[in-house]
Write a structure and sequence with these properties.
heterodimer; A: 428 residues; alpha/beta; four-stranded mixed sheet; B: 4 helices; 12% strand
Chain lengths: 428, 122
């Protein structure tokens, strides 16, 4: 499967009469976007705001971030199973408004988390401080229940992103990158002297506000399956989860997974990247056993010699991570784990809720309990008072002057377990 | 036999025949589950389910398989998981928040949703 990604670099976003891309600026027809995003009987109103890097703007609580994309050639459309049919995506050509993002906000439940600051300390922790953001504040009709509310806001974000993506359909991209994974036997034969590496892509799937979808299917309901890595670049995987802001994977990050991008970067040079096995993180121990058994079986079947495993979330997904590690290592296949840590505010506690001696190659995305102070912002999009209620905050987190003292887990993607965040450690 | 230890009234009301309901905090739920594990129960759901940390949500439901009368061997894996969960809960700082009724309902709904993958659908 081969996909060309045409990146159209976006360096500014402005409201305009017509939604279009001109001179690296995304112009947005505010009224039209609000109408399209709000085209659902369950939505009362959609307000559209712009938030640019460096501005004194805080968005809270953030639900999802979505990158505007459009299919130019090839089967299907962006976000299959939601915005289009369920054709196989991941081949042909896709244009991306690189540098732009749709951010959705609005209350879904009382304690939903996620802060994006466009400047100050918080901006150093969230990757969405560097994107030109089109922010949707979505208010559903009164009386809507939690499950439907989540769905309604999720779909509004996808409609908005696809509407903006259309503006890039006829634009000549600034750069075109090609990604290709061949059918397994051909792929294995292409670089016979390089180690064969596969990727186990663990997805958060525990229930309401903890869901992830693949071609519209709730991943909690699947058994692990093979995915061509290019499928994610067309939005085959979307986020339906909006708790644990620091280490959930927004839809934007799925489309840009640094793990997959880096594996492609090394493909044919130092490794032979065979593809992805997607798996879930369910609630019951039987589901965990079944899924990790199937994952290890698939990895063995692919003939992989080494595997990267990334986790999403904290707590019981640590058990899935450990099971995947143990069972794959048990087949004589090396693993590298990517996770983040909840090691206490002083960093001195045990980092994960589960562990294994076989997890001897592990990459951390940071300690989610680390405390920061976010300075006051001139403009707040959303509801600042939730700072006291979201995970990582406490009563009094929102100070009278508008600053926020909290753990970095309140910040969207601060410790993203696909490595999309900024935290790093360097030896001098 | 499936049994759900829960301090969530929404779970009690949905599964009245399956739930051992307790009006208590999350730590107490975990301790009750641990005691049941010592009596031979086997964990069905992971006690740390959900990304909402156990010191954030006032509600928690944990499903176990309880042994028949003649008893069962102690399941060491279940014991380790519930003991680790108790350690994790103690590690997280206590937050004395005043939740509104609407927020409490949201917490109840999410906990109910997480545990609802356990009981048979019909």
């Amino acid at each position: 499967m081969k996909l060309e990604i045409g990146n159209i670099l976006i360096k500014d976003v402005q409201f305009g009469d017509k939604t279009e891309v001109k001179n690296a600026t995304l112009f947005v027809n505010q009224k039209e976007l609000a109408e399209i995003a709000g085209n659902d009987d369950r939505i009362k109103s959609v307000e559209v705001f712009l938030a640019r890097p460096g501005e004194s703007v805080r968005i809270i609580p953030v639900k999802d971030a979505i990158e505007p994309r459009v299919k130019v050639e090839g089967d299907g459309g962006i976000f299959p199973g939601f915005m289009t049919g369920v054709e196989q995506v991941g081949s042909g050509r896709t244009h991306v408004l690189k540098g732009a993002a749709v951010i959705t906000t609005g209350r879904i439940v009382g304690f939903q988390e996620g802060i994006v600051d466009m400047s100050g300390t918080g901006a150093e922790y969230t990757p969405f401080s560097k994107t030109q953001n089109v922010v949707l504040k979505v208010e559903p009709v009164d009386g809507i229940k939690q499950h439907e509310h989540e769905l309604v806001v999720r779909l509004a974000g996808f409609r908005a992103a696809n509407y903006l993506g259309e503006a890039g359909k006829e634009v000549k991209p600034d750069e075109v990158k090609t990604y290709e994974t061949k059918p397994l036997l051909q792929q294995a034969a292409e670089f016979p002297n390089l180690p064969k590496v596969a990727y186990v892509y663990m997805l958060q799937t525990q229930g309401l506000l903890h869901n992830t979808y693949y071609y519209g299917v709730d991943v909690a309901e699947i058994v692990p399956t093979f995915m061509y890595p290019t499928e994610i670049m067309d939005g085959a995987i979307v986020s339906g989860n909006c708790v644990s802001a620091c280490d959930k994977n927004p839809t934007y990050i799925h489309c840009n997974s640094p793990v997959i991008m880096d594996l492609y970067e090394e493909h044919g040079k130092t490794i032979n990247f065979l593809g992805c096995v997607i798996t879930n993180e369910n609630v019951t121990l039987q589901d965990k056993e079944r899924s990790s058994n199937m994952t290890a079986k698939l990895i063995e079947f692919l003939g992989a010699e080494a595997v990267i495993i990334s986790e999403e979330g904290f707590g019981n997904p640590d058990a899935d991570l450990v099971m995947n590690c143990n069972k794959i290592e048990g087949k004589g296949i090396k693993t590298v784990l990517i996770t983040d840590e909840y090691a206490g505010q002083d960093g001195g506690s045990q980092s994960l809720a589960d562990s294994t001696p076989l997890g001897n190659a592990c990459v951390t995305a940071g300690n989610a309990n680390q405390v920061v102070v976010l300075p006051p912002m001139d403009t707040i999009i959303g509801y600042p008072e939730v700072a006291n209620l979201i995970a990582g905050g406490w009563e009094g987190s929102l100070r009278p002057d508008g600053s926020i003292e909290a753990e970095i887990q309140v910040i969207t993607s601060a410790t993203n377990e696909l490595g999309f965040g900024f935290l790093t450690a360097k030896t001098a | 036999m499936l049994m759900i230890f829960s301090n969530n009234p929404a779970v009690r009301d949905k599964y009245p025949d399956l739930v051992r309901y307790m009006d208590c905090d999350v730590q107490r739920v975990f301790v009750e589950v641990r005691d049941a594990v010592h009596m031979g129960a086997v964990l069905i759901s992971h006690p740390l389910s959900g990304s909402i940390k156990p010191n954030e949500s006032p509600y928690k439901s944990v499903a176990v398989d309880t042994p028949p009368k003649r008893g069962r061997q102690l399941d060491l894996k279940s014991l380790q998981i519930i003991e680790d969960a108790i350690v994790t809960l103690r590690k997280l700082p206590v937050k004395n928040r005043q939740y509104t009724d609407g927020m409490l309902e949201d917490f109840r709904v999410i906990d109910l949703d997480l545990i609802s993958s356990v009981p048979p659908k019909n």
